[in-house]
Fold:
Amino acid sequence: MQDILIESLMTTEVKCTSPVTPLSEVVRTMRTNRHSCMVITENQKPVGIITERDIIKHFADLMQKGREYDPPAVRLMSGAPVTVATKATLLEALVIAKSNEIRHLPVIDDGGDLVGLVTQTDLVAAYFRVVETQTQAVDRAVANRTQGLLEANMKLRELMLEDPLLRMGNRRAMEIDLAHTHAAARRYRRPYSVILCDIDHFKLYNDHYGHAAGDKALQDIAAVIKQSLRKSDRVYRYGGEELLLLLPETMQEGAEDLGQRLLQAVVKRAIPHVRHSQGILTLSGGISCVDAVDAKESWNDVVERADNALYQAKSAGRNRVVSFAATDLGDQPLTEPFPTPAWIQRDPKNVDPTSL
Structure:
């Protein structure tokens, strides 16, 4: 999939219009050309997109206000559209579309001008062609019993973008999504934050309860985290028991509030851990925020700050979050640890796991 570029998949026959175009004209053009969306542009650059879903969402308003109601396209369009570059790969486009839960990706050139459009149908069709090709390679390798079997299996594993245990994006998908989010934040000067989470004393948990129980605990905590996120937020398995949360359009204060809610939710879940001083599993988090991406800074730098903040949280006693912003000259004050409810016994010698 790394060899398949978006420019080979996109359609260049993109119907565009300006933000002031009446909605009736937008709908008429979409219907005439049998298109499921229309890209809104200014000076050849995409500033929004109107899809069938947007029109349906506002249909009740249209019906209620009658035929005279004909708002401009800007009133219904999705602003700051998620775009993809012509030189992006099929793999990158799949991750971007999946993580943002969108079906249409305007394609831009190096100057940011609109040059094409790829849809979910285009991406899925191309993906299955790749999978079919690799499956055939595996079949041939099995028949020949050669080194080709190992090579073909390696290529199939490269197609995986989801962690099979936690049912969330894996490290590979995370890197693609972060790179795209960082580039978009730089282009549109928009903020975003990441939270790097780690389960406290998880090695001791595995040693005491076994790896099967450890996997179940990971799944439980992952589910708790997913339930706490907004629709636009994404979570990835960073490695082992570490999870990375990507929070678009989120400033430092909002990320800190979410971090505290996550700690609270994990404590309330009360997964027994007799070798933890608090008797249950807890979470630590490191937050890194950018409100205006520095041209010299990469997304790796953002994650590294989150990693350093996580280390500070661990060193300060765990069950807390620490946040660093791009403009911080020194360490941010540590947040207070989330208090363990009084009904949870803190002495591991006195904890009966069956009672929690």
